Amino acid sequence: MEAHEVLEKVSRGEMSVGEAEAFFRREPFEDMGYAKLDTHRKLRNGAAEVVFCSGKADDHLVSIFQRLWEQNGEVFGTRASRAQYELVRQELPELTYDAVSRIMKIEKPGKKKIGKIAVCTGGTADISVAEEAAQTAEFFGNHVDRIYDVGVSGLHRLLSRLDVIQSANCVVAAAGMEGALASVIGGLVDKPVIAVPTSVGYGASLNGISALLTMINSCANGIAVVNIDNGYGAGYMASQINRLGERS
Amino acid sequence: MEAHEVLEKVSRGEMSVGEAEAFFRREPFEDMGYAKLDTHRKLRNGAAEVVFCSGKADDHLVSIFQRLWEQNGEVFGTRASRAQYELVRQELPELTYDAVSRIMKIEKPGKKKIGKIAVCTGGTADISVAEEAAQTAEFFGNHVDRIYDVGVSGLHRLLSRLDVIQSANCVVAAAGMEGALASVIGGLVDKPVIAVPTSVGYGASLNGISALLTMINSCANGIAVVNIDNGYGAGYMASQINRLGERS
Amino acid sequence: MEAHEVLEKVSRGEMSVGEAEAFFRREPFEDMGYAKLDTHRKLRNGAAEVVFCSGKADDHLVSIFQRLWEQNGEVFGTRASRAQYELVRQELPELTYDAVSRIMKIEKPGKKKIGKIAVCTGGTADISVAEEAAQTAEFFGNHVDRIYDVGVSGLHRLLSRLDVIQSANCVVAAAGMEGALASVIGGLVDKPVIAVPTSVGYGASLNGISALLTMINSCANGIAVVNIDNGYGAGYMASQINRLGERS
Amino acid sequence: MEAHEVLEKVSRGEMSVGEAEAFFRREPFEDMGYAKLDTHRKLRNGAAEVVFCSGKADDHLVSIFQRLWEQNGEVFGTRASRAQYELVRQELPELTYDAVSRIMKIEKPGKKKIGKIAVCTGGTADISVAEEAAQTAEFFGNHVDRIYDVGVSGLHRLLSRLDVIQSANCVVAAAGMEGALASVIGGLVDKPVIAVPTSVGYGASLNGISALLTMINSCANGIAVVNIDNGYGAGYMASQINRLGERS
Amino acid sequence: MEAHEVLEKVSRGEMSVGEAEAFFRREPFEDMGYAKLDTHRKLRNGAAEVVFCSGKADDHLVSIFQRLWEQNGEVFGTRASRAQYELVRQELPELTYDAVSRIMKIEKPGKKKIGKIAVCTGGTADISVAEEAAQTAEFFGNHVDRIYDVGVSGLHRLLSRLDVIQSANCVVAAAGMEGALASVIGGLVDKPVIAVPTSVGYGASLNGISALLTMINSCANGIAVVNIDNGYGAGYMASQINRLGERS
Amino acid sequence: MEAHEVLEKVSRGEMSVGEAEAFFRREPFEDMGYAKLDTHRKLRNGAAEVVFCSGKADDHLVSIFQRLWEQNGEVFGTRASRAQYELVRQELPELTYDAVSRIMKIEKPGKKKIGKIAVCTGGTADISVAEEAAQTAEFFGNHVDRIYDVGVSGLHRLLSRLDVIQSANCVVAAAGMEGALASVIGGLVDKPVIAVPTSVGYGASLNGISALLTMINSCANGIAVVNIDNGYGAGYMASQINRLGERS
Amino acid sequence: MEAHEVLEKVSRGEMSVGEAEAFFRREPFEDMGYAKLDTHRKLRNGAAEVVFCSGKADDHLVSIFQRLWEQNGEVFGTRASRAQYELVRQELPELTYDAVSRIMKIEKPGKKKIGKIAVCTGGTADISVAEEAAQTAEFFGNHVDRIYDVGVSGLHRLLSRLDVIQSANCVVAAAGMEGALASVIGGLVDKPVIAVPTSVGYGASLNGISALLTMINSCANGIAVVNIDNGYGAGYMASQINRLGERS
Amino acid sequence: MEAHEVLEKVSRGEMSVGEAEAFFRREPFEDMGYAKLDTHRKLRNGAAEVVFCSGKADDHLVSIFQRLWEQNGEVFGTRASRAQYELVRQELPELTYDAVSRIMKIEKPGKKKIGKIAVCTGGTADISVAEEAAQTAEFFGNHVDRIYDVGVSGLHRLLSRLDVIQSANCVVAAAGMEGALASVIGGLVDKPVIAVPTSVGYGASLNGISALLTMINSCANGIAVVNIDNGYGAGYMASQINRLGERS
Questions:
Q1: Beta strand B50-52 with B75-78: parallel, antiparallel or unpaired?
Q2: Cβ of G212 and F203 within 8 Å?
Q3: Cα-atom radius of gyration of chain F, to the nearest Å?
């Protein structure tokens, strides 16, 4: 550790106090024992490992994927178009693409999955967002159960799968239109529910704002909300919670 | 009928063509066979019978109540304050007041009630709006069942009353916060559901706008929405529907 | 009925109490006498019979249409593009398509239509939404009268068709821009009015939000509102109301 | 005229070119032939004559009223509370106050009124705003006809007064809730309609925003809109239009 | 006049009272002395003469243009694409098209123009909307002065044209972005100002909503506002006002 | 368990199959082995244990507190006014009140607290909401660290407490105005962050909507959002997560 | 400086490397040469010197004022009520209060003022906000010129003061209603303009949101915007700019 | 100067007083010593020098670029497409184009750059807007430091560049999504910060409105905001401030 070395050198008289001061002023973070920060950033904020592909320039995208694959032996990108996949696959032939979730990745084989996350959707049109959540959680090493098309307008569908949902450490509920799914699930489970409003709908759905408001105003407890269509964010947070529940 | 009389007079030469033209130009509606229109207005738009008390000047309020009582033998006012009730009661001692619904009225005794309307609420705070709906429907001669505090965060409460709700001709669903009640009911009954968003909630409930959006975007069928806190409007429309179902 | 059978078996000692408990816990709904629920779902929420085509994957769409046609002998889809029609027609040559309403369907011949629903529009640009409502209602067995282009800026057009509108059990009023049509009709009839805001307009019409607000704030009675451009929803609810009025 | 005098002095050698340049640079407007501007400002923007009383400090209000009365022999204030009236009347005993319009004024007697402006309202709750418009127009010398409580939910009330409305040079239409009155009137007259949304309503009326949007999106021609509750602005503009129609 | 004839016939015994009643009930408007209404509708609401081309089906557009041309000897359409022009010109070779205003028309030659309307814009990007206003006003027989690109960020441009603006009977002010032009002009003239917010701008301009709010809140007097980009509506109302000022 | 008893009775021939069917149809939930549901509801959705005091009628509030205290030996209410406290204390002298969090409660002594939740605020004005979260979490048996007034405009305050924050299982971040605290914390920890927008601010803070939008759009991972000022909801969900992390 | 001392001690062997590491990890900021940060915070973010009084608890407010006065010999608070002033004056008799700006302060005498800031308002109702800006700037040592009530509806008022405005280093423009003042000034000066929307207005002014949008969309250059009614923020930033222009 | 000449002529009797009056009335501005105004407009509002290319007609764009190049020897255009560049380059072969900032220009060589402006972005997607700001500032003769991708979710990136940011006269902070960058920077520097919300984001980012609200509500001091994506406006204002700091 560099900060340690600097201090050692000061202690041994190999570095002047003034030089040490300059060092600490210039690099307060990286050299300050924040290696931990660096390490957990890899997992956490995706700059290192998870690539938000949409809008990236072609050459940037290819080089980012190459660098991450070389560094980590795996790489994971969200919101990728098929064209982007075709492009990057030319350099990384092992790359796979899922058209539903729009995820492209190379994943280390034999990853162990722990705990359980339930990912639910109100309708079939929400599945794209749900798959982004589910596959993100799986990539981060969590076991995922999918319970799709269990919207509140046909309650028996949801209730018949209740045992599966209730056995998870954390539930992701993705729904558009009126977004009531999260409230109903919140009333039936005693685990945290991550609600994902989707942009599914038309007219007064306001591209997901209505579902977002529904979920934020939920009268059930244990519900918190991420951005519209943010399957990745929901999958990431569900992973954090599930892993908390499985540690020890 | 006046139009008929005018034409009779023209036919008998008792009125000139010019006088008749002036008559038709001046009174195109009232005298044109629209007596029906006048008659149904009484029932329909409340100008004659239902008084929106809030904001009315004291003397106006008293004289309107007196005139309506004299004319119809009953009178019905919504959104009345207790002070307004005390005021009007000085002239109309038979007047009664319900502090929950804020309705004050004199009602003809022995009114026959037909059919069935189910009035549901998500929480106890929505009961004020629901009572406005229920008592309006009762005043117009409908039988009403009240199913209160059956919000989606505790689904079994709703499901245990399902038989009552399913047996109604029309359901009124009043809910604030996320307003998901209407969708869930809409998925469980095959009768029209009148959804009433209420201003219950705080923060992102936006004084009922969130619940309104939820209800308008409902993925269930057979749901239509009235204004925030508009219990009267819901009760009125439910009455129209229930009476349709009971005629013949 | 399965629940009945299970209880019979318990009564006859052919099934243990524990097995019966497991059964009731696992299948609280489908096996609990909710056949009624299942049956009315067919009519009601369209999962079985009415297909929202927009956004469906090609192969899903074809197989859904095939399955529903086989099951019911008829099939009804809304928001279909011509390309979707061409696709499905390859498998179901009897399929017909209406470019105005964007409905594609196979309908059983000789369907009896009962009662009367009046479907009105403010302008010619609202006709697409109105046809979705009208054809939905007709598919569900209701008689429909169309009264188009009777917007409030030319009131005599509306008034000259008033007798037709007043004779219906239920009125659907579709209008964009300022959406005042529903209020004016609500003041002239004593039957329920289902208001459909349309996205017709520009600038401050906010893609239908302005018309939605107008209709929700209507000072006339007996009006309730569905989502912007939701002709299907209006037609479905009008069908529920009209059939109530014609039963017995 | 000062600019004239300056130039005369330059011409006569009584003022140097430098002094004249300084003058023109310093006072480009008042001295530049903009007397006309000054004169019409008195009539137009109310800084001189019309006082927006709400929020004015007591001493400011009294001195403004005194100064204007001394200068013009009359004075006109809008949005005045009764307390403000009591205050100012101590100095100006001739001051009168109208509690409905909240206007307080001293008006020159025997003012001739020309032309005709029709001021209409949807309901009785809009009358306060309408009176502000009507009394403003009257103060500026226009003849005003009042046609109140003719909202679109009871169309025959409006139609029975149509001849009065059609004979005006300009119509002011004040309405809250859904604000449809302006569109209906716009379809029945061929004169300019000034639409005033009012804050009358509740819930989704959004304190007048809904009525504003309705009026801005009107499908009728010849309608323009002023701010919510801006009776003064409507009355002022109606005055400009009516006087145009009566000059010559 | 038909109503007159009917009454004459009743008076002469050539028509029974019952037949006359049926006539008056069926046609309360067209036959009721509202010929004036019909006549001014031609001028006013454009159903007869002004065609909103955008979104019209090709065959409808062609037949409407043909019918109007045959009936009136002229025809005027707004929001036309060049493709629509090419299409209709095949049937009506005299048709002309202006790509800036997107107006296509055949106009009677030698039309006399009266009075004066000033049409102003804040920037060059607002000219398209302004030309729709100006050419509409010219088609209806008004003289128009164009004062373009005089936005408030370069005030001297506006002030140097002030004499032209002040000499008009009515001013149309079209501006996007912050839309301050209308207020500044309203402070400089004593004639009605019709403010047209345009959708010019980006970001927080919200497609014209910001400019609309600016104009509605104007602190200047004599300003009223039409819908975003509604050049036609502004030109129409300006025409009504200008013609009022020139009658007699 | 009742369902068990019913089946036992059927098995023993003490109850007919028809009676059993009626039982299962009438009470599908409570008697269906959902005791678990009932039990966890106590913990979860607060109907049993946590009382939202604001707006409750006086007599209701007193009786709810009494019943819960008798049933559970403790009782916990949020959003209580001092007047409500004074009222209930007359019946429950042990009741305590915290004016900052507005919580009133009787808590069982010696409650063991596990794990760690960090509750942070941007400013001092957010402390009221934060205390609601912290005391809720403590009531449910969690250890809480408070890190207040560490808003992003003085970053060193936050960074100097980073070790405390990073050692928690879950972080609650409450902030008003621009609400940036959650993002900054999200970038510094690898545990779930529950973001609570507060209504602190003025002008464009829109009573917390701005902070809500900031938090929903966070570019950091592992953040989810609850309603504006919903300290209780955040504390509840943080409790669920922390307890997950400490079970085993 | 502490960091220096720590390093000196390490260098002299008086502190172990481990102890030094712990120090740097614990206090990365305050001890890291960020004294500069601390120093400029005093001037900048007002935690030290400027007190936002509104909402502060009485005892907090008094102690903050006392501590700051003792520390700095002066103290400055914004958004203070008269009651707060009376309270604090009991402890600090030298405290002065300005009811217009709602500022209470003790200011060191003989403060030198440099440069020039012009503070302008559209109307008289904006003066409260403008005075908060002006007095803030004066407290921070800037010379301020006030140019009030020069709104765009009376342009000559603004133009007659143009020389004063053009001679400032920075202009603060405070306006409510349509907020056009900033754009007009931006077009007339070549110095930065800080625009302050005020909540002055009614109806569609949306409590200042309309003025905010106007200013953000300004077509003039050199304009940036602070929060609604944020006179302090504008005065603070103007001070930063003016002092930049006067250094050297 | 013309005004001077006119006065000279009046003084010499070569021009009548009436002619001079007409001159001053007609041209109050251009001839009134506002040459300064003209001169600074060149620098300031870009009508002369900076061209907003987006939406300009091809022939207009070419002629504007040619005229400006001839007049000034340099020319600068923002929001240019590559196609526009190809077009104008045919006439001005020296024209250069930057695809990131979308700026096309001919710049005089050897321009001296003074002072320092720091331009920061939250992410890489904000660089396009930041480059518009940076290159605008450079064109106007300012030295610019770029500090990109230092968003708040990875704080150490920002802190490691703090010395560069703190040494600037003015900071431009461009960020989308939650837009928290400006607040964090505002808390770390004592110079003015121009915040530029960008439209980067999705869902509840509302095309930049969320970032705009965040920035307007900043709890840090010394921050003001320009329109969404308005890099040019930020660069222009930063230039004004930086040059103030470097004059003398």
A1: parallel
A2: yes
A3: 22
Q: Select the residue of A16, A17, A25 nearest G33 (Cβ to Cβ).
A: A25
Instruction: Decide if B4 and E11 are in contact by the 8 Å CB cutoff.
Output: no
Give the position of tokens 């009131």: C155
Contact: E190, D43; criterion CB under 8 Å: yes
> CB of D117 within 8 A of CB of D144?
yes
> Which residues on chain F are in Cβ contact (under 8 Å) with B202?
227-229
Residue B173's nearest CA partner among B184, B162, B182, B165 is B182
Q: What amino acid is encoded at D59 in this protein?
A: D
Q: Residue count of chain C, please give it.
A: 248
At position G248, the amino acid (one-letter code) is: S
Contact F236 A248 (CB under 8 A): no
Q: Which of G222, G236, G237 sits opposite H44 (nearest CB)?
A: G222
| E strand or H helix at B7 | helix B2-11
pLDDT per position in chain E (248 positions), as tens? Answer: 356 777 888 888 888 887 776 666 544 333 332 222 333 344 333 334 688 999 888 888 998 899 888 888 899 999 999 999 999 999 999 999 999 999 999 999 888 999 999 999 998 899 999 999 999 999 999 999 999 999 887 787 888 888 899 899 999 999 999 899 999 999 888 899 999 999 999 999 999 999 999 999 998 889 999 999 999 999 999 999 999 988 75
H or E stretch covering C172: strand C170-175
Cα–Cα–Cα angle for E96, E98, E102, nearest 5°?
115
Contact present, A218 and A186 (Cβ < 8 Å): yes
DSSP conformation class of A88: H
- Is-contact G175 G123, C-beta < 8 A? yes
- The minimal CB distance from D154 to the residues B26, B45, B208 is found for B45
* Ranges assigned E (strand) in chain A: 50-52, 75-78, 96-98, 103-106, 114-121, 142-147, 170-175, 193-197, 223-225
DSSP chain F: -HHHHHHHHHHTTSS-HHHHHHHHHH-TTTTTTTHHHHHHHHHHTSSSSEEE-TT--HHHHHHHHHHHHHHHS-EEEES--HHHHHHHHTT-TT-EEETTTTEEEE--TT---EEEEEEEESSGGGHHHHHHHHHHHHHTTEEEEEE-S--GGGHHHHHTTHHHHHTSSEEEEEE-TT-THHHHHHTT-SS-EEEEE-----GGGGGGHHHHHHHHT-SSSSEEE--TT-HHHHHHHHHHHHHHHH--
Name the residue among E60, E106, E52 with its Cα closest to residue E80: E52
Does the beta carbon of B219 lie under 8 angstroms from any beta carbon of chain A? Answer: yes
The DSSP bridge pattern shows strands F193-197 and F223-225 to be parallel
G window 190-209, beta carbon within 8 A of D: 202-205
Asked whether this complex has an ipTM greater than 0.95, the answer is: no
D153 in reach of chain B (CB within 8 A)? yes
Residue at A96: amino acid letter:
T
> What Cα–Cα distance (Å) separates residue G166 from each residue in A215, B47, B244, F53, G161?
52, 61, 74, 58, 9
Beta bridge partner(s), residue A53: none
Helix H or strand E encompassing E26: helix E17-26
Mapped onto helix, strand or coil, the DSSP state of residue B104 is strand
What CA–CA distance (Å, rounded) separates C232 from C234? 5
CA H22 from centre of chain: 38
Contacts with E17 from chain B: Cβ below 8 Å = 4, 7-8, 11
In the structure, do chain E and chain B come into contact, i.e. share 3 or more CB pairs under 8 Å?
yes
Can you list the domains of chain E with their CATH numbers? 3-106 (no CATH), 114-247 (3.40.50.1970)
Q: What is the bridge-based pairing of β-strands F103-106 and F75-78?
A: antiparallel
Please write the tens of the pLDDT for every residue from G186-212.
988 889 999 999 999 999 999 999 999
Q: F112 Cβ partners below 8 Å, 6+ apart?
A: F141
